[in-house]
Write a structure and sequence with these properties.
Layout: H1 2-29, H2 35-63, H3 66-87, H4 90-118, H5 124-149, H6 153-175, H7 182-190
Helix pairs in contact: 1-2, 1-3, 1-4, 1-5, 1-6, 2-4, 3-4, 3-6
Length: 196
């Protein structure tokens, strides 16, 4: 369905950003003082952010539509990328990597939930397998870019911000997002408008 396709495309954007930030941070920190220690700290922060995202995501799912979760994840990447590019410090880059990975975790739950609700039962397993393969390819492509071009910290963060902005705009346009929460939608369904 259209919702699965648009959410799958958004998920690939997030996975590409995750792969990009991992290798961008690793190569960028090589030239910084105590770069190895900073990268170890970054991995720790990424682990904590993913843990927190896994903890919070079920709560978000109960109170938001999957489309709003995905849009929020993309916007978080865009905003944090802008801040990191402006700040242009090691700590900013590490925090950006943490936000990107947390956003990827939230987006993954939103995508899985969309497939479970919108994909036909017979095609659900195949859909998961196909999209997961594409997500892994997006991660690899995202990771290759900083390896080949080795952008500066500021440029790399700006790239993440730009991808987040474009991804947010495209997803918003493609998915026709409703701003209503799950509770409001359920109320609307229980009390449909009647013409006089």
């Amino acid at each position: 369905s259209a919702s699965i396709v648009s959410t799958g495309n958004a998920m690939r954007v997030l996975r590409g950003c995750v792969g990009f930030m991992f290798f961008h941070l690793a190569f960028w920190l090589r030239g910084e003082v105590a770069g190895t220690a900073w990268f170890g700290f970054a991995l720790g922060m990424i682990g904590v952010s993913v843990l927190l995202a896994n903890t919070v995501s079920p709560f978000l799912k109960n109170h938001m539509r999957e489309s709003m979760m995905m849009l929020g994840a993309l916007l978080a990447v865009a905003i944090s990328g802008i801040i990191a590019a402006w700040y242009d410090r090691v700590v900013g880059g590490i925090l950006l990597a943490a936000v990107v990975n947390a956003a990827g975790t939230v987006g993954k739950l939103a995508f899985d939930s969309t497939v479970q609700s919108d994909a036909p039962d017979a095609n659900r397993g195949r859909a998961f397998a196909q999209f997961e393969t594409r997500n892994q390819v997006a991660w690899v492509i995202g990771g290759i870019i900083p390896v080949i071009f080795s952008p500066s910290g500021e440029i790399g963060f700006a790239i993440v911000a730009l991808v987040g902005i474009v991804g947010s705009a495209m997803y918003f346009r493609a998915s026709g997002i409703s701003m209503k929460s799950r509770g409001e939608q359920a109320t609307d369904q229980e009390h449909p408008l009647r013409s006089e």
